[in-house]
C-alpha cells in the first residue's frame, strides 16, 4: 500500500513490483472473504477459527519473521548458523539454499539490469522523489520492520527489490507448492483436525473415529487444491 501511494502509474519500480507481486494484494482480500471470515474455510476445516488464525499470524509476524533486511536470504541463514558457520561443521547438504541461491541469483541479475536501465548513477536514485517517498513511508507510516528508511544507492534498491521478489516467489513457493496438495491433502495421514477429543488413556485400538468423515475429507482436499 505504501508503494501504491508513493508511485505514479508509470514509475518503473512500481511497474516491476506490480509484475512480480501480481495478485498478492488480491490474495489478502480473498483470504479475508473466504478463509478467516466467520464460518469460513479455516473454521470449517481446522480446530481453530479465523480470529485465532489471525492472532497466530500476528504473533508470528512480531517474531523473527518481521524484520526486512535481517531476513535477506544469506543474512538470515548465516545468523541461524546454516551457512558460513564459524562454530560448527558445514552442512553436507542444504537443498533449499542450493536451489534458492541459484534462483535468487538470477533474480538479482535481472533486477540489477533493470535498475541500471532506469538509473544511470546513484545520484539518479536520490533525485527520484517518488522512490525516496516510498522508502520513507514504508519504514515509517507502513511500519515495515527493519525496512531501510532512506535510499542513496542503486545497490540498496536492488537489494530491496530482490528480497521482495524472493518473498513472493521462492519463499512462498517453497511453502505452498505442489506438496500442499500431494502431501497435505493425503488422508488419513494428514488430517487438518481431529474429530473426537484426544484420549486420556492408552490402548486406543482404532484411529478412525478421530478422522474426518467422507464429507469433511472431500472438503479438506478441495481446500488445499483450491489454494495450491
UniProtKB/TrEMBL annotation:
Chain ranges of the Lipoxygenase domain: 1-228
Classification via InterPro entries: LipOase, LipOase_C, LipOase_C_sf
Cofactor: Mn(2+)
EC number: 1.13.11.45
Catalytic activity: (9Z,12Z)-octadecadienoate + O2 = (11S)-hydroperoxy-(9Z,12Z)-octadecadienoate
GO MF, one annotated term: metal ion binding
Gene3D superfamilies: Lipoxygenase-1, Domain 5
Gene Ontology biological process terms in this record: linoleic acid metabolic process; lipid oxidation
Keywords tagged on the record: Dioxygenase, Manganese, Metal-binding, Oxidoreductase
Keyword Plastid belongs to the record: no
Protein name: Manganese lipoxygenase
Amino acid at each position: 500500500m505504501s508503494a501504491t501511494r508513493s508511485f505514479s502509474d508509470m514509475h518503473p519500480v512500481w511497474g516491476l513490483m506490480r509484475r512480480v507481486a501480481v495478485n498478492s494484494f488480491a490474495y489478502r482480500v480473498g483470504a479475508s472473504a473466504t478463509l478467516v471470515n466467520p464460518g469460513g474455510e479455516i473454521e470449517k476445516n481446522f480446530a481453530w477459527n479465523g480470529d485465532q488464525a489471525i492472532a497466530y499470524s500476528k504473533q508470528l509476524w512480531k517474531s523473527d519473521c518481521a524484520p526486512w533486511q535481517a531476513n535477506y536470504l544469506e543474512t538470515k541463514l548465516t545468523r541461524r548458523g546454516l551457512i558460513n558457520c564459524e562454530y560448527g561443521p558445514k552442512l553436507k547438504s542444504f537443498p533449499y539454499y542450493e536451489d534458492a541461491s541459484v534462483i535468487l541469483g538470477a533474480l538479482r541479475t535481472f533486477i540489477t539490469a533493470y535498475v541500471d536501465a532506469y538509473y544511470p548513477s546513484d545520484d539518479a536514485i536520490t533525485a527520484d522523489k517518488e522512490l525516496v517517498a516510498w522508502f520513507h513511508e514504508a519504514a515509517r507510516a507502513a511500519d515495515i520492520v527493519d525496512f531501510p528508511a532512506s535510499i542513496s544507492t542503486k545497490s540498496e534498491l536492488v537489494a530491496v527489490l530482490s528480497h521482495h521478489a524472493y518473498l513472493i516467489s521462492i519463499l512462498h513457493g517453497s511453502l505452498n507448492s505442489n506438496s500442499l496438495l500431494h502431501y497435505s491433502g493425503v488422508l488419513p495421514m494428514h488430517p487438518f483436525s481431529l474429530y473426537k477429543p484426544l484420549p486420556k488413556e492408552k490402548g486406543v485400538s482404532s484411529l478412525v473415529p478421530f478422522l474426518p468423515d467422507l464429507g469433511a475429507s472431500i472438503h479438506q482436499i478441495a481446500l488445499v487444491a483450491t489454494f495450491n
